[in-house]
Amino acid sequence: MIGIIGAGPGGLTAAVALRRVGCAVEVLEQAPTIRAAGAGLTLQLNAMRMLEALELAEAVTRAGYALKSGCSARPDGSALMRMSLTGADGLTGVGILRGTLSRILHEALPADTVRCGVRVASVSRDGVVIDSQGVERVYDAVIGADGIHSAVRAAVFGEKPLRDANATCWRGIADHDGVDTLCERMGHGLRFGSVPMGGGKTYWFAVANAAPGGTDGADPVAELRDRFSDFEPLVDALLVATPRVMRHDLYDLAPLDVWTAGRVTLLGDAAHAMTPNLGQGACQAIEDAVVLAGAVSRLGVPDGLSRYEETRKARARSFVRRSWTLGAVAQWENPVACWLRNLGMSWTPEVVMRRQLAAVYGVTVPQLG
Ligand SMILES: Cc1cc2nc3c(=O)[nH]c(=O)nc-3n(C[C@H](O)[C@H](O)[C@H](O)COP(=O)(O)OP(=O)(O)OC[C@H]3O[C@@H](n4cnc5c(N)ncnc54)[C@H](O)[C@@H]3O)c2cc1C
Question: Where are the alpha helices (DSSP H) in 241-280?
């Protein structure tokens, strides 16, 4: 039996993928139920290829919004750079509510696979897991998919520092269906992105430079409307149509030297949390999950765990690094620097853009059974 700690996109996908290669799995999740709420997610083609291998791409696309293309834009909405999010075979990226993705993954598992309300307190390299009630479980392998503040990582590898990106992000789901493409508008130290989710909803995110620990006043929507008043009118329309705003400071995890020790490995944000600037955190967790299942099916436990880490580490790290750099550039405040950035973006030849996207989306999908 393989124990997976955490039922986020990474842990749930790992459960589906491992079951597909014949492994018995149990998922321990601290929350009382699988999260039905949350913000939106962009699943790019690399993640969709992995979900295709699990025969879930169609369900995910149907439940979300097929994203054929995306753009980076000026605050007034005029495009700086356009990108195709569609593969040669017609598969596209997808905008989807987190809760919807969780439901689809959860429903792909037998009913008793996920145990909610179990918070893992400690894990040892030989596969012994102890929860906060003191209950002990012994697994053949343990996958720490418990997110950026991973208890599994802390127990097995010690405390690892998070890096503060000095930026904060607001997110919301607007009751608004006037958006049909992914678009991120970049101003001076301010960004506003919007992604259609289908079902009359649009997910948006807003980023500003800020020291960690800041809070909003009683009316965050009014504050955001004020802050983004120079942006195109659609931004204001999305903000007014939003019933609830979430706010989180942005962090990532400094690259780890090792993810695997004995019968324990890390997956997703627990292994390589990145800033959200590339929209790849959950996508990389999904890649991890399918690669892990392929390696375990070929090599068993524990060898498959080390092979998974070897296969994934360099690629995941490259996203951590690029996401950090992109965030720094996207949050420039100096008007001259911003003008030069925008000029560079608008002059990027299409062939260069296509080559970059091919590197992101060109994943090798392992054979699963
Ligand atoms: C503002 C923002 C926007 C983003 N946008 C995108 C995007 O568009 N596309 C994209 O691909 N990524 C995006 N990401 C990144 C994405 O959210 C994460 O990378 C992704 O959720 C990681 O999945 P995970 O399964 O590794 O971890 P998580 O989603 O963090 O899940 C971890 C799970 O483990 C559980 N858990 C934690 N501790 C314990 C414990 N001790 N015991 C039991 N259970 C535990 C938690 O309750 C949780 O359910 C964004 C992130 C942010 C902050």
Answer: 269-272
